[in-house]
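Need a sequence for this fold. Nothing fancy.
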């Protein structure tokens, strides 16, 4: 399969993606094409990408600094100004070539410039291939609070090309594994068996896993585009994972965590909460912990850290009416939405993680 249809977008895999993009460019009279990159994708991905594109339309490159710390309104303002200075108009196209930060912020910038221009996502990291670029969530952070401002907008198409995985450092590749594990855990035991020991998989096997993971997410988005029900399952491990990621982002003595590292911790914690509250199998919980620890180093959290992480939970965008909502599991593939959890239960989950 080389094509998935989402609600308002198409997801293409491999070379067919560039063929479809070139057809799209030839059929639409774009005034100018902007390619948004960071310093890494500018060097390692842009030359290959441009070699695949056939168009006589002027292409302008806009570069932003890499990293979650730059997913801010200040970065947006810089890009909006650049778009204006380069004579961008409502007939412009933006192509977001990069990881989750690029596709998140690029989609948001495109959706708001001139009240909305068309955009295409070309994810270059495993994380953005299986998660950030698919499903129409765009946005930016407010300080250390993740994804507080944004819109739902799927863009025109997504091109998933495993070529770009060759440009990644090992930690960036591994960061994407967490979302793949999550997709399997919320879906079925068969999917979990498929992805276990994921770092030992060949590239060919990984391509099949990527297709399956994107299919899982796309199926969820097709049923619930605006996160009113089923799409909440995609937040398994993210309530505490995002709080941990935000906390480490600004704490001077904590390592800045990649998204996958934080979500890996979050899945262990959510797994333990599932065990406490819904009798999720201890053996399966230990499998999750073993898989996460095979990918990511353990992070030390003090009691003071836990207090501050708990305080950040109140800002989670999934909350409603003042309630902190968790997605938990009674078994692999069997999820429970909007679960309230006590601080004591969270403390016990961290104790399981630390020990």
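Here you go.
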């Amino acid at each position: 399969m080389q094509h998935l249809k989402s609600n308002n977008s198409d997801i293409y895999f491999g070379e067919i993606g560039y063929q479809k993009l070139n057809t799209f460019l030839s059929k639409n009279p774009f005034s100018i094409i902007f390619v948004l990159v960071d310093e890494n994708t500018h060097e390692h991905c842009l030359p290959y990408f441009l070699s695949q594109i056939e168009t006589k339309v002027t292409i302008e490159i806009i570069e932003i600094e890499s990293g979650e710390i730059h997913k801010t309104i200040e970065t947006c303002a810089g890009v909006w100004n650049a778009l204006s200075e380069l004579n961008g108009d409502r007939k412009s196209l933006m192509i977001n070539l990069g990881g989750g930060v690029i596709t998140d912020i690029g989609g948001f910038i495109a959706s708001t410039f001139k009240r909305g221009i068309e955009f295409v996502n070309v994810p270059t990291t495993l994380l953005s291939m299986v998660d950030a670029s698919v499903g129409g969530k765009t946005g930016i952070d407010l300080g250390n609070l993740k994804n507080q401002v944004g819109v739902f907008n799927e863009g025109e198409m997504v091109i998933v090309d495993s070529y770009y995985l060759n440009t990644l450092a090992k930690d960036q590749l591994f960061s994407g594994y967490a979302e793949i594990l999550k997709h399997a855990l919320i879906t079925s035991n068969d999917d979990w068996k498929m992805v276990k020991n994921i770092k030992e998989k060949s590239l060919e096997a990984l391509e099949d896993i990527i297709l399956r993971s994107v299919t899982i997410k796309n199926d969820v988005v097709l049923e619930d585009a605006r996160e009113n029900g089923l799409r909440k399952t995609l937040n398994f491990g993210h309530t505490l994972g995002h709080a941990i990621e935000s906390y480490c982002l600004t704490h001077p003595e904590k390592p800045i965590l990649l998204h996958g590292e934080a979500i890996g911790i979050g899945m262990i914690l959510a797994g333990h909460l599932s065990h406490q509250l819904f009798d999720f199998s201890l053996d399966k919980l230990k499998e999750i912990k073993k898989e996460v620890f095979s990918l990511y180093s353990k992070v030390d959290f003090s009691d003071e850290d836990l207090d501050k992480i708990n305080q950040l939970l109140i800002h989670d965008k999934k909350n409603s009416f003042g309630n902190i909502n968790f997605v938990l599991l009674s078994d692999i593939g069997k999820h429970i939405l909007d679960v309230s959890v006590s601080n004591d239960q969270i403390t016990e989950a961290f104790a399981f993680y630390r020990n």
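For context: The mean pLDDT is 94.
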